[in-house]
Amino acid sequence: MVTAICMNPSADKTVYLDKFELSATNIIKRETRDVGGKGINVAIALRRLGVPSSCMGIVGDKSLSEVIAHLEKSGVEARFMTVSGQMRTNLKVVDESSHQVTELNERGPEADAEMLTLFKTLVGERAKKSRYIVFTGAMPPGTPADYYRELMSVCPCRAVLDTHGEMLTSALSAKPFLIKPNIKELEKTVGRTLSTMRSILEAAREMTALGAQNVLVSMGAMGAMLCTEDTALYSPAISVPVRSTVGAGDCMVAGFLSGIIQNGDIKEAFRFGCAAGAASVMTEGTRLLDKSDFDELLCRVSLQSVQ
Ligand SMILES: Nc1ncnc2c1ncn2[C@@H]1O[C@H](COP(=O)(O)OP(=O)(O)OP(=O)(O)O)[C@@H](O)[C@H]1O
Ligand SMILES: [Mg+2]
């Protein structure tokens, strides 16, 4: 069982326009609305890849039934604590002429100190029954930035962190099994631009020196790099028809975990992660990935060692 934490789920509303203009009235052509949140995405993608998963989090009471129904429909066990209010709405504005996406994200309801203490106890109990626990996505406003590290301190299983900023850096000392920054997040973390393979590898090695056991750097259409204690591998992105890149990183994390669980080998896990990331961009909007695409792409992943 893999447990994914989702402390601030969202209703992802995507609106499509011919062209998005600032300071103008924009007419919406069509729109979609889905339950979102990175932890939710990871848990559902895992299930699609055949790995039993659960999702634990905090949600506004008015949105609880919608979140539970969304997870259970995909076969994911859902365990949520509630705070008063609604989950946040994240609005994505898609300009179909340029394919640019503008995002407007709400902050979501707050969780008080008492709630956070109780949640930590429940996460610790859940972690005892899990092989991996994934910490990803935004936390409720006002939550201390080192809260993921606090949660990790009560988890006896392997921890995966897909987050950024202080939420990431403060948790490195707790020695996460895997971190998955994208290239922008890694640049922000080390405070410099990373434009060569060597510079990316050096930055990833800085993360391992600070405590991360394995570092998976995703670079969108440029592919991905895996840096472990003794190897560094690069995988160029597979050329696939791109429909939506939303959730590609979440699917990559799920793919990596399905690979390590099914094969026990970190190189295989990297291959699985790359295939899942590519499968994700082939599906529309927030549909995550189809297992059949993933199966076909697995043999198209190529790995090169990085010096
Ligand atoms: N355009 C693309 N073509 C092929 N593969 C892609 C493309 N975009 C992403 N991928 C695959 O998905 C992986 C993860 O993508 P990306 O780096 O965009 O993650 P991310 O920024 O964490 O995404 P998110 O947080 O929105 O889920 C990439 O490393 C790559 O393997
Ligand atoms: Mg990401």
Structure description:
The chain has a single domain, classed as 3-Layer(aba) Sandwich (UDP-N-acetylmuramoyl-L-alanine:D-glutamate ligase), CATH 3.40.1190.20. It is α/β, with parallel strands linked by helices and 307 residues long. The relative contact order is 0.13. A six-stranded parallel sheet has the order 5-4-1-8-9-10, sandwiched between helices. It has a four-stranded mixed sheet with strand order 3-2-6-7. A four-stranded antiparallel sheet has the order 11-12-13-14, with helices on both faces. It starts with a strand and ends with a strand. The chain is globular. The chain is 36% helix and 24% strand. The mean pLDDT is 96. Adenosine-5'-triphosphate binds next to helix 8 and helix 9.
Distance between the termini: 35 Å
User: Could you state the order of secondary-structure elements as H and E?
Assistant: EEEHEHEEEHEHEHEHHEEEHHHE
How would the global form be characterised? globular
Average pLDDT taken over every residue: 96
| Biggest sheet architecture | 6 strands, parallel
Compute the CA-based radius of gyration. 19 Å
The third-level CATH topology is UDP-N-acetylmuramoyl-L-alanine:D-glutamate ligase
Helix content: 25-40%
Q: Please give the number of β-strands.
A: 14
Q: How many individual helices?
A: 10
Assign the CATH superfamily.
Ribokinase
Which CATH first-tier class would you pick? Alpha Beta
Structural class: alpha/beta
Our count of domains comes out at 1
Provide the spatial order of strands within the biggest beta sheet.
Answer: 5-4-1-8-9-10
Low-confidence parts: none
Unique bound compounds: adenosine-5'-triphosphate, magnesium ion
CATH architectural designation: 3-Layer(aba) Sandwich
- The proportion of strand residues reads 15-25%
